[in-house]
């Protein structure tokens, strides 16, 4: 976060975590560029993307980080988490194992963070209702137990993607302003 004579400017680092193939990269590309990739390979090279929103007449920049496939090796580096003030913890509503991993991701996040982090539990791929494996209720209960916001999204059809990021950004803003 910076300030100058013109007014305040805000820059928030947000990380996206969760098992491989839950849709992290597509949530980010949908939010930052309105793009979706059906056959996305692990993103190479791209560390983060930014998108700005206006809150209280101020420009608030979200710098959103993608793991770029590191999670396949269970080795997301501490640099990834450093300075993060927001996090989306993503699972795939059609694969129970990805839901079971949420606790481990939360532990890793907590280990690496030294400030208040606004956290959103995200059940992605809600367009795949016919093969749903985790109910909305289960997602809600876990979020409540762990003190997280909760939302279901679809990076494919855009459902709630903007909302998921913006709830986190607004929560961070209210934490610091
Ligand atoms: P990541 O490994 O967590 O970054 O996941 P990706 O964003 O690479 O997505 C993994 C696969 O899931 C890709 O084939 C995507 O096209 C697909 N995918 C991602 N989000 C959605 C979604 O909301 N709905 C559906 N049906 N497929 C999705
Ligand atoms: Mg990815």
Q: What would you say this structure looks like, in words?
A:
With 177 residues, the protein is α/β, with parallel strands linked by helices. It is 32% helix and 27% strand. It has helices at residues 24-33, 78-81, 96-100, 102-112, 136-146, 161-176; strands at residues 2-4, 7-17, 48-55, 58-65, 86-92, 118-124, 149-152. Strands 1, 2, 3, 4, 5, 6 and 7 form a seven-stranded mixed sheet that branches. A hairpin with a 2-residue loop joins strand 3 (48-55) and strand 4. 39% of the residues are buried. It binds guanosine-5'-diphosphate and magnesium ion. Guanosine-5'-diphosphate (GDP) is lined by residues 20-26, 37-40, 124-125, 127-128, 154-156.
N-to-C CA distance: 11 Å
Radius of gyration: 16 Å
Tell me the helix content.
25-40%
- For the report, how would you describe the main beta sheet? 7 strands, mixed
Task: Look at the structure and give the mean pLDDT.
Answer: 91
Low confidence ranges: 1-5
- The ordered string of helix (H) and strand (E) elements is EEHEEHEHHEHEH
Strand content: 25-35%
Oligomer: single chain
Bound molecules: guanosine-5'-diphosphate, magnesium ion
Keywords: GTP-binding, Lipoprotein, Membrane, Nucleotide-binding, Prenylation
GO molecular function: GTP binding; GTPase activity
Main location: membrane
Membrane topology: Lipid-anchor
């Amino acid at each position: 976060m910076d300030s100058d004579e013109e007014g305040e400017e805000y820059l928030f680092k947000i990380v996206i975590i969760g098992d491989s193939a839950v849709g992290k990269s597509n949530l980010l590309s949908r939010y930052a560029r309105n793009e979706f990739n059906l056959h996305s390979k692990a993103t190479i090279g791209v560390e983060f993307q930014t998108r700005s929103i206006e809150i209280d007449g101020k420009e608030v920049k979200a710098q959103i980080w993608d793991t770029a496939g590191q999670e396949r090796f269970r080795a997301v580096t501490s640099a990834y988490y450093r300075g993060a003030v927001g996090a989306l913890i993503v699972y795939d509503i059609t694969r129970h194992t990805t839901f079971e991993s949420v606790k481990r991701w939360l532990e890793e996040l907590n280990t690496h963070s030294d400030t208040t982090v606004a956290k959103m539990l995200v059940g992605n791929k809600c367009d795949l209702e016919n093969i749903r494996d985790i109910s909305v209720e289960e997602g809600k209960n876990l979020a409540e137990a762990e003190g997280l916001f909760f939302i279901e999204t679809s990076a494919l059809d855009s459902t709630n993607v903007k909302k998921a990021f913006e709830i986190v950004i607004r929560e961070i803003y209210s934490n610091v302003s």
